[in-house]
Structures are given as C-alpha cells and as structure tokens.
C-alpha cells in the first residue's frame, strides 16, 4: 500500500507470480478481509453486506452485454 509510482516496477519484480504465490496472496487477502470485517467482537452486517454488494456488482458487469441487448428488443 505504500508503493510509490516510480518504485512500482521493482515492487512487482519482487512478487511471486507462481501458482502457489498467487494462491497464497488470495489466501492472505481473504484472511485480512475476514479478520477486519467478519471476525470482530461487535459484529454487524457491514462486512457481509459489502461482500453481497460486490457479488451483485460483479454479476451485473458479467451480464451487462446481455442486459444491454434486451433493452432494445420489442415485445409485442
């Protein structure tokens, strides 16, 4: 998170892009999200709602082309 724009190439060069590296990065991201929003002492609906909103947004983006074509069809 503290990477400057001119240091981006060196930072990306130090990342592990093997399948195990990518899986461990996804696992670390999941653990950070879970510990920050889900696994809290006084939990609310915020973390689950954020996950649900993200799912709805991604689903809409995946289906946007189909939805766009349905707008112009005539049903009669």
UniProtKB/TrEMBL annotation:
InterPro entries: F1F0-ATPsyn_F_prd (IPR019344). GO terms for molecular function: proton-transporting ATP synthase activity, rotational mechanism. GO terms for cellular component: mitochondrial membrane; proton-transporting ATP synthase complex. It holds the Pfam family WRW. GO terms for biological process: proton motive force-driven mitochondrial ATP synthesis. It is found in: Mitochondrion membrane. Keywords: ATP synthesis, CF(0), Hydrogen ion transport, Ion transport, Membrane, Mitochondrion, Transmembrane, Transmembrane helix, Transport. The chain crosses the membrane at residues 43-62. PANTHER family: ATP SYNTHASE F CHAIN, MITOCHONDRIAL-RELATED, ATP SYNTHASE SUBUNIT F, MITOCHONDRIAL. Belongs to the ATPase F chain family. This is ATP synthase membrane subunit f.
């Amino acid at each position: 998170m503290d990477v400057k724009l001119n240091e981006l190439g060196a930072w990306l060069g130090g990342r592990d892009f093997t399948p195990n590296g990518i899986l461990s990065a996804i696992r670390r991201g999941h653990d950070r999200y879970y510990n920050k929003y889900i696994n809290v002492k006084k939990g609310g609906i915020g973390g689950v709602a954020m996950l649900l909103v993200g799912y709805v947004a991604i689903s809409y983006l995946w289906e946007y082309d189909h939805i766009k074509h349905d707008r112009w069809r005539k049903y009669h």
